[in-house]
């Protein structure tokens, strides 16, 4: 049976008992409120988090010299650019929100898409959000506890308050959420610009000893292939987030123009900023000083900014606040897309009748992050997240090549040269192989986390004839969720979007599920 999004939403509405709200619109839809500036802010704001301010020492530690570390930062940006070009083609060929998940589901089928969704919703994004929120609270509390680490409980409470506040903002208005992203992205770019300007002043004063070729390539250790792979991993992970705009494609104004434009503007800008920020660091610190610092930007500020050294911890706090907002905004759209495909409870595919925001999906993301903060060893989990994240990138770009083979005549507004995904995948395979060799336990646990989704898929999604009591329970919870959150199923996109994203669907227990 062939059905576009409008038919699926209608069937899901009948199954879930869509409610018409007095005084509200008859049908509601996600609003297209993300223009080019906000699109750039989403990419830049999600890439530039706390990492560039705190610990670029990971690249330097494994590279063994200043010069090679700077080359790796540039190459990391180049690899992100190759990946983003591939995602630009996928984003305009399959113009659906959900990013990697939507593309993998479309190309490889329901199980592969569900495993990606499962790992992302279960651990990837909640853990990333928890780490960013804890970094935010630690830097906000640093002036209050200048001579010691902020208390555990104080840090956790402030992180939770920040998360709840931004969840409320994202639930109330897409416009508010994007404006916050615009403002805080501008703030973090200004902070990095300050570092770069101070670095150039140092260079004009002659303080560039560590950047001269004889010193820059003076290796204190000879890096092995394994060290180079780890250095590239550190640099690549600093660029993670370059694909986040693809999660909100349906809320972009004119996505076929603005998606690639935003990518072409943002990735080179971030690469420039990262490289020159690291150059600035080396005008104030020796490699040994940088390696011994736990907060490089703060050390930089203390050495060069004097009375204004407080600017650096404030900048980190602002950067992480914007990062939390960006992660919430995009990860909630992943839950929304997964529910719309039938891989998550249908309640998560509903939006507020007035604000047109996916409140149930936002609440699930918030709750999962709060649980990780309370019960998880967050900084250990982030190691597994990094491996899963990088694995997902490669699988998605393999999907681009598979889609070229399976559907060669499909309309592609952007069509990249095949050398671009092949080059990216060669680099990806190199890093993945040496990651498995260097960190077998971390990679093994990451694979186990992904594979735990297999039985969940067959029990929750593939199993059609569930007992009536289970279906009644699900319908009852959906109905109560609609009442509490004041949400309905959204109206779907244009006829053109329907035609470009139509699938084969099978009704399962009254809803539509991607097999």
UniProtKB/TrEMBL annotation:
**Membrane topology, from the record:** Multi-pass membrane protein
Lineage: superkingdom: Eukaryota
A biological process (GO) of this protein is: D-serine transmembrane transport
Its GO CC terms?
plasma membrane
Give the keywords, sorted.
Amino-acid transport, Cell membrane, Disulfide bond, Membrane, Transmembrane, Transmembrane helix, Transport
Q: Which GO terms describe its molecular function?
A: L-amino acid transmembrane transporter activity; neutral L-amino acid transmembrane transporter activity
Kindly list the places in or outside the cell where this protein is found, as annotated in its UniProt entry.
Cell membrane
Instruction: Report the Gene3D superfamilies cross-referenced here.
Output: Amino acid/polyamine transporter I (1.20.1740.10)
What InterPro entries does this protein's entry cite?
Answer: AA/rel_permease1, AminoAcid_Transporter
One Pfam entry name: AA_permease_2
Its name, as the record gives it, is Solute carrier family 7 member 10
Q: Which organism is it from?
A: Corvus moneduloides
Instruction: Name the lineage.
Output: Eukaryota, Metazoa, Chordata, Craniata, Vertebrata
- The gene for this chain is SLC7A10
